[in-house]
C-alpha cells in the first residue's frame, strides 16, 4: 500500500512539474492551443490531414501560433504574408538553424553544417578559402586531369593491339 501511494505521489509531482515547466517557458511564444502534459497538442491535430488542422487553428489563433509536438514547442507560420514577413522582412532573426542536442554535444557547436551566427560565417569563409587554395573552382586542375586521362587512354590503346 505504501508503494502505491508513493508511486501516485511521484507521478502527480512529475505531472505538476511538467505543467509548470510548459506554462513558465512560453512567455515569448505566440498563442496557441493549451497542450497536454507529455503529449502536447498531438491529440488536437488530425495526423492524416495536418494542413487542414493547422488551417483551422490559424483561424482561431491567427497566422502565427504555437503547437506542441510532445514537449517540444513549434511555431507555425500560416499563410503567405506571415511567411514573407518572417523570411524576408525579419530574415536575420529567423536565419538560425534548429538545435540538435546530440550533434551539439558531439561537435561542441563547431562545423559548417550545424553551427549558427558568426561562428558559421567564419567557418564557412575559412572552408571556402582553404578549398580554393587547393584548386576548387579553378580550371587548371581539370585540364591536368583531362590531359592525364588522354595519356592513359593512349597507353591502354598501345597495349591492346598496338
Notes on the protein architecture:
With 162 residues, the protein is mainly alpha-helical. Helix content is 57%, strand content 7%. It is built from six helices and two strands. It has a two-stranded antiparallel ribbon. A hairpin with a 2-residue loop joins strand 1 and strand 2. The protein starts with a helix and ends with a helix. The model has no long low-confidence stretch (mean pLDDT 81).
Entry keywords:
single chain, 162 residues, mainly alpha, two-stranded antiparallel ribbon, 2 strands
Mean pLDDT, to the nearest integer, reads 81
List the secondary-structure elements in sequence, H or E.
HHEEHHHH
Structural class: mainly alpha
Oligomer: single chain
Number of strands: 2
Q: Main sheet?
A: 2 strands, antiparallel
Strand order of the largest sheet: 1-2
Which blocks of ≥5 consecutive residues have pLDDT under 50? none
* Separation, N- and C-terminal Cα atoms: 95 Å
Cα gyration radius (Å): 28 Å
> Which descriptor suits the 3D outline?
elongated
Proportion of residues in helical segments:
55-70%
DSSP helical segment count:
6
Amino acid at each position: 500500500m505504501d508503494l502505491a501511494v508513493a508511486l501516485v505521489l511521484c507521478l502527480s509531482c512529475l505531472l505538476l512539474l511538467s505543467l509548470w515547466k510548459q506554462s513558465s517557458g512560453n512567455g515569448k511564444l505566440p498563442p496557441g492551443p493549451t497542450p497536454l502534459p507529455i503529449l502536447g497538442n498531438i491529440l488536437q491535430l488530425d495526423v492524416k490531414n495536418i494542413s487542414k488542422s493547422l488551417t483551422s487553428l490559424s483561424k482561431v489563433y491567427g497566422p502565427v501560433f504555437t503547437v506542441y509536438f510532445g514537449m517540444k514547442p513549434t511555431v507555425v507560420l500560416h499563410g503567405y504574408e506571415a511567411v514573407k514577413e518572417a523570411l524576408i522582412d525579419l530574415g536575420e532573426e529567423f536565419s538560425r538553424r534548429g538545435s540538435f542536442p546530440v550533434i551539439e554535444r558531439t561537435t561542441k557547436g563547431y562545423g559548417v553544417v550545424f553551427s549558427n551566427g558568426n561562428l558559421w560565417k567564419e567557418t564557412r569563409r575559412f572552408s571556402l578559402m582553404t578549398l580554393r587554395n587547393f584548386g576548387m573552382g579553378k580550371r587548371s586542375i581539370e585540364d591536368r586531369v583531362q590531359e592525364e586521362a588522354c595519356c592513359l587512354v593512349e597507353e591502354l590503346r598501345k597495349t591492346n593491339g598496338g
